[in-house]
Write a structure and sequence with these properties.
Helices cover 5% and strands 33% of the residues. The protein is mainly beta. The radius of gyration is 24 Å and the shape is elongated.
């Protein structure tokens, strides 16, 4: 026995600190979550655990991208990017975890696990209906709620055809 025990590693000042924060996201884009670790004596790999409580494999590149980050002094920040393909299959409230243990005392060190909840914004689109007389111009408005950033664009469709940029049409988008 090396004389190092789990109780010693858990005392303040002898164990690293791990931070992983809950996030609320829009499900239409890739999302990166970061596991920040401080107080490490040497580089320690981070293991990511998915909502199914299974370890996420670095080879699962269709759904995830894992970046272990750089070890600088006693700190590192590992990132898990959850790709849109995976996000579309998740429910709001999905729990992801980052897990690590001291690589210096791996046989005596307990796992340190932090979890975070990934929630989704609920977007609402409301079309404002107005009656207009046949043969007159009509203004159609769309109110979008539940977003925190300005939209890059809105696409208007008629019978599945994008009329937003249709040249020579009877549509004006502003």
């Amino acid at each position: 026995s090396s004389g190092i025990n789990a109780e010693w590693l858990l005392r303040p000042g002898n164990v690293f600190e791990v931070t992983l924060e809950d996030r609320t996201v829009v499900p239409a884009t890739d999302q990166a979550i970061t596991c920040s670790v401080s107080g490490l004596s040497q580089n320690t790999p981070v293991t990511w655990i998915g909502p199914d409580d299974n370890e996420i494999s670095e080879s699962d590149t269709n759904n995830y991208e894992i970046n272990q980050g750089s070890f600088i002094f006693t700190n590192k920040a590992a990132t898990l990017t959850i790709k849109t393909a995976k996000i579309s299959s998740l429910s709001s409230g999905a729990v992801f975890k980052c897990k690590l243990r001291s690589s210096l005392y791996s046989t005596h060190s307990p796992d340190v696990v932090k979890e975070m909840e990934l929630s989704f914004f609920t977007l609402g689109v409301q079309a404002i209906n107005k009656e207009v007389e046949s043969g007159t111009d009509a203004t159609i408005s769309c109110v979008i709620t539940g977003i925190t950033d300005d939209l890059d664009s809105v696409i208007w469709r008629k019978s599945g055809t994008d009329v937003t940029t249709l040249s020579g049409s009877n549509y004006v988008v502003s």
